[in-house]
Design a protein that fits this description.
The protein is an alpha+beta fold. It has helices spanning about 5-15, 45, 50-69, and strands at about 20, 25-30, 35. Helices cover about 50% and strands about 15% of the residues. The radius of gyration is 11 Å and the shape is globular.
Length: about 70
């Protein structure tokens, strides 16, 4: 399903593991239990390159870690 930005940040921040590049524009979290995928159905993701998506996710991850610690 589609997640909101805050849900994505929450999912990433609560994950023990995070892996980039597990699929086309995908990020795998929670030991692979969840895969966050930037797909072409969402115009927001379509407008962004894979690099930009990764930077955004890393930024969210860092922000979320700051909230938790």
């Amino acid at each position: 399903g589609n997640l909101s930005q805050s849900q994505v940040a929450s999912l990433i921040s609560s994950s023990d593991t995070i892996a980039f590049g597990t699929g086309p524009e995908a990020v795998s979290v929670m030991n692979g239990a969840f895969s966050l995928v930037a797909n072409h159905e969402q115009s927001l993701w379509t407008a962004l390159s894979t690099t930009q998506v990764s930077i955004i996710l890393i930024t969210l991850f860092i922000i979320a870690m700051g909230v938790y610690y």
